[in-house]
Amino acid sequence: MGTSLNVLLIGTGRVAFHLGHALKVAGVSLVGVVGRSPERTSSMANELNVPSLVFGSDLPKADVLLIAVSDDAIAPVAASIPVSDAVVVHTSGASDLDRLAPHVHRGVLWPLMTMSPGLPMDLTAVPMVTDGNTQHAKSVVRNVAQRISSHVSSLDHADRELVHTAAALSTNLSLFLLGEAQRLLREAGIDPDLLIPAFRMMATKAGTVGPEEALTGPARRGDHGTIERHLDRLARDPDLRRAYALLSNMILRTYGHTEHGPADV
Ligand SMILES: NC(=O)c1ccc[n+]([C@@H]2O[C@H](COP(=O)([O-])OP(=O)(O)OC[C@H]3O[C@@H](n4cnc5c(N)ncnc54)[C@H](OP(=O)(O)O)[C@@H]3O)[C@@H](O)[C@H]2O)c1
């Protein structure tokens, strides 16, 4: 497919923004941005220096239609696009290829990264998970992914769903717990950012020595007295207390200690 790969970007949210920039930096030809809000679409199109289009208008010819919209909008958006020989691709780790019906060549390009508004991210080391329903779709999506990242793998829907679940467990849930921990400090008038250096170090060590080696704390050591005092501290937050007790019991068991007691007390 060489350098003549043309991509039409559909969506004006976080992933469209970062993928759009990464494709541009990689020298991929973007033939336009399609969105439902004329303001947001023309703002992104101006930034990428490509034509701005709204849904329902005539779309330029492209090798790849990259649909980066909310999971629930993928199917209606795909169904609204005229069928052609283009490879139609979504960016969701949690959605199957059937959502791209009735297109013949369907693909997935899932950046395994949390993306927020802000400056364009460097995606060159971000894992890109790809899939396709035909050999042509698989190879075109892989080609696009390899232009923006050196970390490309292919997974079918069942495996993607497992990776998506694992990613939610490891990142979304830890971040939520960090937010709750900061709330406890804030409510006590203590600087919530006291927790940030240790949180950063934890993430760094998870990537170097691995979570088993990096894990410390009372449950890892089997310090039941400290666990009990922590549970007392969480008495006014029953859900958080239960979560603390449940996760502590899982750690205690994993490291060969006796459990602290039932979590739902
Ligand atoms: N953010 C992440 O960390 C991340 C990472 C990897 C993959 N993904 C996947 O990437 C996709 C996009 O996520 P995102 O975070 O970029 O979402 P987002 O920032 O919330 O943007 C969603 C986009 O979908 C458009 N949209 C929503 N409903 C629509 C509809 N009915 N018709 C047409 N357009 C519609 C929105 O248009 P308006 O602007 O007009 O509302 C917006 O452009 C999702 O499939 C998500 O699972 C997200």
Topology:
Elements: E1 6-10, H1 14-25, E2 29-35, H2 38-48, E3 52-54, E4 64-67, H3 71-79, E5 87-90, E6 105-111, E7 128-132, H4 135-148, E8 152-154, H5 157-187, H6 196-208, H7 211-214, H8 218-221, H9 224-233, H10 238-254
Parallel strand pairs: 1-2, 1-4, 2-3, 4-5, 5-6, 7-8
Antiparallel strand pairs: 6-7
Bound molecules: NADP nicotinamide-adenine-dinucleotide phosphate.
Tell me the domain tally: 2
- Rg over alpha carbons: 23 Å
Approximate helicity band: 40-55%
Give the class from helix and strand content and strand pairing.
alpha/beta
Note the overall shape: elongated
Q: Can you tell me the CATH architecture of the largest domain?
A: 3-Layer(aba) Sandwich
Q: Which stretches are poorly predicted, pLDDT < 50 over at least 5 residues?
A: none
Q: Which sequence of SSEs, written as H and E, runs from N to C? A: EHEHEEHEEEHEHHHHHH
Report how far apart the termini are: 61 Å
- Quote the average pLDDT: 95
Bound compounds: NADP nicotinamide-adenine-dinucleotide phosphate
Largest sheet: 8 strands, mixed
CATH class of the largest domain: Alpha Beta
Instruction: Count all strands and give the number.
Output: 8
